[in-house]
Peptide chain release factor 3
Amino acid sequence: MPDKTIAAEAARRRTFAIISHPDAGKTTVTEKLLLFGGAIQLAGTVKGRKSSRHATSDWMEMEKERGISVTSSVMQFAYRDRMVNLLDTPGHADFSEDTYRTLTAVDSALMVIDAAKGVEERTIKLMEVCRLRTTPIMTFMNKLDREGRDPMDLMDEVERILRMRCAPVTWPIGMGKRFRGVFNLLDDRVHLFGAQHAGGIEAGETIEGIDNPRLDEALGEQAEELRDEVELVREAGNEFDREAYLAGELTPVFFGSAVNNFGLQELLDRFVEHAPPPQPRAAETRTVAPEETPLTGFVFKIQANMDPNHRDRIAFMRVCSGAFERGMKVRHARIGKDVKIANAITFLASDREHVETAYPGDIIGLHNHGTIRIGDTFTQGESLKFEGIPNFAPELFRRAVLKDPMRMKALQKGLVELCEEGASQLFRPLMGNDLIVGAVGALQFDVVAHRLRTEYGVDCQFEPVNVSTARWVYSDDPRQLARFQERQQENLAEDVSGALAYIAPSRVNLQLTEERWPDIEFRATREH
Ligand code: GDP
C-alpha cells in the first residue's frame, strides 16, 4: 500500500555519486557541496582522507583511509527542501568492483572533469558502468581558474567519447587569468567570479540579463565576447531536455572552479530540481515502488570498522521502499530470519548519528557480525531478492600459505570474513585444501595479508597459483552439471557462497573447456 509520508519523503531524496578521474577535483567538489548543506565540520574530514591517496603501499595510511572512509563514504545533507545522499566511491583503481556496486545504489551521478585534461580513462570506465543502468549524469567542468581547453572542444569530446549529448546550463566567461564568471543560459543571468570566492559559500555579484549594460561595465570587452559565444552556443548546442537527461542520453553541463567554490551552486540548484528521486527497483519476483509501506533494502557494500576494539563490520544498506525506524524488526531474506536492528548508523554529514527514521534513497549502516553479505535483501517479511548487484570474476589469483599451521582455523575465518567485504574473493578447490584468493588488483593481496595479521593474528603469504581466470558454472540440465563436476573436479572450486566456479589454468584451457561442454554456461559475473 502506498503511504503519503513515505512517498513525500522519497520524492525529496536525491541519492548520487561522483565519477571522475583522480585529481579532477572529486574531493574538493564533495567538500564544497557539504558546505552548502551546512556541514562545515565534515569538510575537514573529507580532506583528511587525501593525504593517503598517493601512498597506497603504506599500510598504516591505508588503514587510516579505510577508517575514515566508513564515516565519509556516505554523506547526507539537507539542501533547500531536499535531502541529498552523496555516496563516495573509492579512488583507487583496484577497488573498482566496490565502485561498481556503489553505483548500483545511486539514482544519478555527477561527472567531474578537469577542463585542462578533458575526458580521462577512469571516467570512461565509470561511465560505462553508469550506462549499464542508464544512470542520468550531470557534468561539472572544473578548474576554469586555470588555462584549460576550449569549452566547445570539451563538450565535443564528451559527446564523441562518452556518446552523450551535452547541454550547457552555464557558460564560462574566459578562463585562467581571464576567468570572470559564468553565464546561466536558463536563467539569463551572469554570476561574476572574484577573489573573494576562496573558501566559504559562494557569493559574488549577479547581473540579470545578458544585454544588461552593467555587464559591459563589469567585463569590458569580455562582455561582447560572451554575447557572441552565447549566440553560437544557443545555435549550435543542445538545449536542456529533462527527459533526455533522465534517459541518460543528454548531460547538462556546468562550468566552474571547485577550489574557489564557484559554479557549484548553479549545479546544486539544478541537481536538486531535476535529478531523479528514488526509482522503482527490480527484484527477482516483482518491481518494488519506493512509496510502498513495507521496508525493503539491499546491501551494496560491507566495510570493516577499523576501530580495533569493535571489530565488527558495517553493511551499507540502501533503503528501496518504506520507512526504517530504529529498533525495528526486519527479515534477512536470504536466510529467512527476523532480526532486530537496534543501532543502525546514519550518515548525516554533521555527525554520525544513530538512525531514527530512514526513507527510500537513504543509506543506513547495519552492524554485521558475519551474517550479512553483499547483495542481501532486507524486508518486513516478504521473501524478496533485489537484482543487479554482481560479483566479477577476478583476474589475479594467489594461494594463501600459512606460516604457522596451527592457525588454519583463524586463517579460514579471516579469509571468509574479509572476502565477504567483496574486494577479494575466496575459492576453495573441490580437491585438496588450498585456499585461493582472487582479486581484480594486486594491491588487494597486500591488504588482505596485512589485515589477516592485524585483525586475526594470522601470518600468511600469498604465493602464485596455476589459475588464470574463473567462471561461475551453471546448467539447466542437472545431469550434465553432475557429469561436468565429476570430470572436471581438479579445476572446480566453491566460492564463499558455495557457488561452483571453474578455475582455469589458462585462457586457452577455458576456451577449450567451454567448447567441449556446450550445455554448461560459463559466466564471468555472478549475481549476489
Ligand atoms: P580528486 O582526486 O578528484 O579527489 O581531486 P581533488 O579534489 O583532491 O583535487 C585535485 C587537485 O586539484 C587538488 O590539488 C585541488 O586543490 C586542485 N583543484 C581542485 N579544484 C580546483 C579548481 O577549481 N582549480 C584549481 N586550480 N585547482 C583545483
